Amino acid sequence: MTVIARKLCWGVKRKTIVRDVSLAVRAGETLGLIGPNGSGKSSLLRLLAGLKQPLSGQVEIQGRDIANVPRREVARNVAFVQQSAATDTNVSVRDVVRLGRTPHRSALSGWRASDQEAVDGALRQVGMTHLQHQSWQTLSGGERQRVHIARALAQSPQVLFLDEPTNHLDIHHQIEILQTVRQLNLTSIVALHDLNLAAMFCDRIIVLKDGALIASGAPETVLTEELIASVFRVAAAVSISPHHGHPQVHFRTGDNAAV
């Protein structure tokens, strides 16, 4: 499914958080959102997913303005993975993932084979099958994040929004999760704080600063030393990795690290 945003603006009281952002994401593409803390990445994701209503502008998914689409219908096609979530309920991992099937079921429908297959597949994709009967309360932060992603995958979405999904994960699982997302046959928009992960796993990157979109394109054209210095206020050297062929950012240390 395609995702198109036209001149999105949103803010709280007198503070503008997303400023006149327009973008287009092709079906099956993985788009990365990068920018410093407070740049508007999370707010933009929620606008694109229909979780916030813009003050002006609109979002179209597969050519339809999502403001005019029933929320349940949106939920059948769009899944959102937030940075973190908590619950005091003592439920199993599998029960959490089963919640992803809610938009596809009516109040009177029973649990179907297709629901079972979706949950099993989602657990398998994030490597949590062996913990499916374990209590949610006993999981580490990284394990909980993987379960949240599994719940989103169980939803069988066509568009997946992820807000810094690698938070709390060790390096191995960061790469594993983003490889999983990258290989899915769906449209993905992911906010990331790690520039090297964005370069490795995103087809295109957009850069936000103070709520405005200031750069957009392939990682090798966007991730320049000049842009990193301007947006993130750090000095870095950028090269092409001989191992994976993507840009690789090396941050400088010492007296000249900040700019």
From TrEMBL:
It comes from the Bacteria. Residues 3-235 form the ABC transporter domain. Gene3D superfamilies: P-loop containing nucleotide triphosphate hydrolases (3.40.50.300). GO terms for molecular function: ATP binding; ATP hydrolysis activity. Keywords: ATP-binding, Nucleotide-binding, Transport. PROSITE patterns: ABC_TRANSPORTER_2 (PS50893). The keyword Nucleotide-binding applies. SUPFAM superfamilies: P-loop containing nucleoside triphosphate hydrolases (SSF52540). It holds the Pfam family ABC_tran. InterPro entries: AAA+_ATPase, ABC_transporter-like_ATP-bd, P-loop_NTPase. The keyword Repeat does not apply. Belongs to the ABC transporter superfamily. This is ABC transporter ATP-binding protein. It comes from Martelella lutilitoris. The lineage of its organism: Bacteria, Pseudomonadati, Pseudomonadota, Alphaproteobacteria, Hyphomicrobiales.
